[in-house]
């Protein structure tokens, strides 16, 4: 599907009803547009089934709570809305975006407790997030920005404002011919990519950064559980940048990214698309379509 995302056929669920895609609009004084008072979820539907859909709905509510924004729908109502919009658009394999945000209202400063909290759910057909890198291996830049301390941001929320440095870092990466960028955190440890978690493999064992300053992705949790069930040792720990060169494989995980191998980080670190990465990618694909 080509063209602007605002100019498409289809339906979007908005505040309890299905509306035409092109009519899903908000006022320029919507609070979220000015102050990033918004949280969202990205999830995928495979063969008619939303993978971990209820967990995503619950996380959306939790994210709202973490930014002091009570979302006036239950997880079950959000589940039903996602199903409704998928059916309305006739999709069985699609990406789903649920967005809760503070709308326009009597407040137009930093505070917005009197403004309505709105909810929109959109869906569209979307292939591999990283394109051909899904099979060939992605190339990652090193972001100049750092994941901040959880004392400065609600790190466990999937909040719109936390993605500002992600957008800037991905733009910089794309200008260098890279698929994405890898963040370090404020302490200097390896953190995550702009929209995906990162894993490394060495001698048949898997290492992944401890999720103490970034979102503990649902796909990340799924992959860790799968690896452990298969008897693969998984080490969730702080990883220093100087360790990267000692790993043999690297891959990214996320609802959009699924499992994507990494072929290169920066100019110096190269990885093979090895057996561990290939197997977990195949197993994940089988799981989401089970």
What labels would you give this structure?
alpha+beta; six-stranded antiparallel beta sheet; D-amino Acid Aminotransferase, Chain A, domain 1; nine-stranded mixed beta sheet; 7 helices; D-amino Acid Aminotransferase, Chain A, domain 2; 290 residues; 2 domains
CATH class of the largest domain: Alpha Beta
Largest sheet: 9 strands, mixed
Shape: globular
**Residue fraction in strands:** 25-35%
Number of helices: 7
**Can you name the CATH architecture of the largest domain?**
Alpha-Beta Barrel
CATH topology description of the largest domain: D-amino Acid Aminotransferase, Chain A, domain 2
Total count of strands:
15
CATH superfamily of the largest domain: D-amino Acid Aminotransferase, subunit A, domain 2
N-to-C terminal Cα separation, in Å? 27 Å
SS-derived structural category: alpha+beta
The chain-level mean pLDDT equals 96
Helix content: 25-40%
Radius of gyration computed on alpha carbons:
19 Å
Low-confidence stretches: none
Tally of domains: 2
Topology as a string of helices (H) and strands (E)? EEHEEHHEEHEHEEEEHEEEEH
Structural overview:
There is one protein chain. The chain has 290 residues and is of the alpha+beta class. It has 2 domains: 11-124, 2-Layer Sandwich (D-amino Acid Aminotransferase, Chain A, domain 1), CATH 3.30.470.10; 133-288, D-amino Acid Aminotransferase, Chain A, domain 2. Helix content is 26%, strand content 30%. The protein has helices spanning 31-35, 53-66, 75-89, 133-136, 164-175, 218-229, 275-288, and strands at 11-14, 17-20, 38-46, 49-50, 94-102, 117-124, 138-147, 180-185, 190-193, 197-202, 205-209, 234-237, 249-254, 258-265, 269-270. The strands form 2 sheets. Strands 7, 8, 9, 10, 11, 12, 13, 14 and 15 form a 9-stranded mixed sheet that branches. The chain has a 6-stranded antiparallel sheet with strand order 2-1-6-5-3-4. Strand 11, helix 6 and strand 12 form a beta-alpha-beta unit. Helix 2 packs across helix 3. The longest helix is centred in the first third of the chain and has 15 residues, at 75-89. The protein is globular, with a radius of gyration of 19 Å. The model has no long low-confidence stretch (mean pLDDT 96).
């Amino acid at each position: 599907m080509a063209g602007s995302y605002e100019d498409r056929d289809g339906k979007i669920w908005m505040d309890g009803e299905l509306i035409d895609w092109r009519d899903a609009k908000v006022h320029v004084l919507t609070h979220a547009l000015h102050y990033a008072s918004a949280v969202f979820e990205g999830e995928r539907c495979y063969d008619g089934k939303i993978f971990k859909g209820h967990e995503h709905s619950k996380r959306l509510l939790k994210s709202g709570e973490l930014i002091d924004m009570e979302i006036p729908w239950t997880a079950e109502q959000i589940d039903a809305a996602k199903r409704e919009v998928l059916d309305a658009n006739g999709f069985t394999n699609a990406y789903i975006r649920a967005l809760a945000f503070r709308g326009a209202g009597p407040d137009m400063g930093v505070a917005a407790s009197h403004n309505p909290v709105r909810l929109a759910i959109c869906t569209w057909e979307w292939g591999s997030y990283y394109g051909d890198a899904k099979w060939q291996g992605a190339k990652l830049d090193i972001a100049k920005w750092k994941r901040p301390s959880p004392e400065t941001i609600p790190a466990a929320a999937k909040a719109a404002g936390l993605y500002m440095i992600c957008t800037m870092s991905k733009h910089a990466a794309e200008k260098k011919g890279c698929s994405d960028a890898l963040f370090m955190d404020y302490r200097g440890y390896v953190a995550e990519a702009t929209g995906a978690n990162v894993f490394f493999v060495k001698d048949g064992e898997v290492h992944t950064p401890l999720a103490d300053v970034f979102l503990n992705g649902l796909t990340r949790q799924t992959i860790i559980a799968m690896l452990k069930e298969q008897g693969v040792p998984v080490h969730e720990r702080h990883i220093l940048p100087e360790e990267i060169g000692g790993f043999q494989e690297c891959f990214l995980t996320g609802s959009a990214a699924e499992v994507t191998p990494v072929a290169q980080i920066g100019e110096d670190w190269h990885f093979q698309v090895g057996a561990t990465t290939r197997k977990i990618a195949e197993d994940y694909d089988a799981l989401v379509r089970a």
